[in-house]
Amino acid sequence: MSKSPPAPPSLEVLRQEIDSIDEQVHRLLMARGDIIDRLIQVKQTQEVGSAFRPAREAAMMRRLVERHRGILPIDTIESIWRVIISTFTFVQAPFSVHADVSVGESAMRDSARFHFGFVVPYVSHFSAQAAVEAVAKSKGDLALVPATSSRTPWWIALEAEGAPKIIARLPFLERADHPAALPVFVVSRVADSAMVTEVETWSVRVSGWNAEIARALSPLAEIVAVPDTAFDGAALLVSVSGAASLEKIKAAMIEAGASVRSSALVGSHATRYTVPPNGAAKHQA
């Protein structure tokens, strides 16, 4: 005679398991805080610029994506980890997030809160230039600037030695229904050793810019362009990754009829992940 299958656990037992896990998560977060406290004592906040470490963050996020499974949406996991990282970074070295809200207050605020939480002060500005200027005057603040269209070439302010640079592009995990989908660049000062250089961002000024040249470059790089009527050209923010190089892009522009007047490296960021509806993440520039 076969045995009856074991009875499923009761709701009370399952809830006790959840309570136990919640307590473990809380204790681990407090333990992380203890380590950060010791880290502060070791560093004595002697490092110049923001306490953010873009390369380390990118590596952490990739490991998170690779090990994630189950019914909990990856967006929730991403936001939780982002807020943990940002909050503990704030505890080490307080900073503010300066946001350009010219493309819309709600979309930019969603991006800031999703990636940095509510503990970090949020300061809105009505232009990218104003947000970048605020960061330039600070020790370790961040600016969030739209990574799409722009009314002014705000990135020119990043060309000078010692100026803040682009250190990240968000969201790191991209999907069609991302809760904070606005593409933004993060601008700040961080140590050179902390930068991630998989995608370089260049400020390029050209003469003879037109729509045909823009179409010729679209397969090679992401470009934000602001017309420069004084030189019959444009100021470009060019994101270069993978097998492409700035020299190839310059050659393509010259072949299409443009003249390159100047170029300067203004930052870099990690290669992003695209998350399709089935949840399998893929690398993206």
Automatic annotation (TrEMBL):
> What SUPFAM superfamilies has UniProt attached to this entry?
Chorismate mutase II (SSF48600)
The processes (GO biological process) annotated in the record are:
chorismate metabolic process
Annotated Chorismate mutase domain ranges read 5-96
PROSITE patterns for the chain: CHORISMATE_MUT_2
Its keywords, alphabetically, are: Isomerase
One Pfam family of this chain: CM_2
Q: Which Gene3D superfamilies match?
A: Chorismate mutase
Question: Is Isomerase among this UniProt entry's keywords?
Answer: yes
The residues the entry assigns to the signal sequence are none
Q: What is its EC number?
A: 5.4.99.5
Q: What does the record give under GO molecular function?
A: chorismate mutase activity
Please give the name of this protein: chorismate mutase
Q: In the record, what lineage is assigned to the organism producing the protein?
A: Bacteria, Pseudomonadati, Pseudomonadota, Alphaproteobacteria, Hyphomicrobiales
